[in-house]
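Below is a filled-in request sheet from our internal design queue. Each sheet records the structural input a requester submitted and the sequence that came back. We keep these sheets so that new team members can see what a complete request looks like end to end.

REQUESTER: design group, bay 2
PRIORITY: normal
MODE: inverse folding
CHAIN LENGTH: 147
BACKBONE (tokenized):
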């Protein structure tokens, strides 16, 4: 992929000369990082499969809104929170759930139906907080939209 200039964004977005350029909406800046030069290993493939499966969950609009509200309240409470988006928090919660329930949860094969059928704690923000996957904040009891 070649670097391109987008309308409304004053900077590059893409890959060029061994670097990756991208726009960060919260910082309102174009950032650059070095392109990683790593050999493909089994762990990389396993993490990639887990990431694809997490993306395939496609949470509902209400669930996403609950996570966005939760993250906003979490940032208001603690300024050291550096998670860039609700999705980062969602992924972090899923990995914590796999660590907490290793015999039940495998992120490489998880599905929405499995979450609902097995009544897993990630089905809503409220159940995730009550299970200890997320920190408790005021008002979390009202974040009940399911995945």
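RETURNED SEQUENCE:
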């Amino acid at each position: 992929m070649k670097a391109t200039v987008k309308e409304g964004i004053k900077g590059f977005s893409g890959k060029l000369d061994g670097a990756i350029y991208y726009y960060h909406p919260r910082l309102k800046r174009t950032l650059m990082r070095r392109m990683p030069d790593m050999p493909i290993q089994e762990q990389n493939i396993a993490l990639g499969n887990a990431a694809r499966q997490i993306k395939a969950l496609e949470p509902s609009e209400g669930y996403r809104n609950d996570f966005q509200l939760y993250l906003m309240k979490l940032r208001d409470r603690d300024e050291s929170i550096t998670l860039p988006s609700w999705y980062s928090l969602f992924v972090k919660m899923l990995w914590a759930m796999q660590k907490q329930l290793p015999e039940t949860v495998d992120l490489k094969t998880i599905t929405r139906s499995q979450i609902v059928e097995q009544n897993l704690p990630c089905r809503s923000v409220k159940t995730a907080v009550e299970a200890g996957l997320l920190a408790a904040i005021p008002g979390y009891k009202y974040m009940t939209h399911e995945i």
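SHEET NOTES:
- Strands lie at 4-5, 12-16, 19-24, 29-34.
- The longest strand covers residues 19-24.
FILED BY: M.R.
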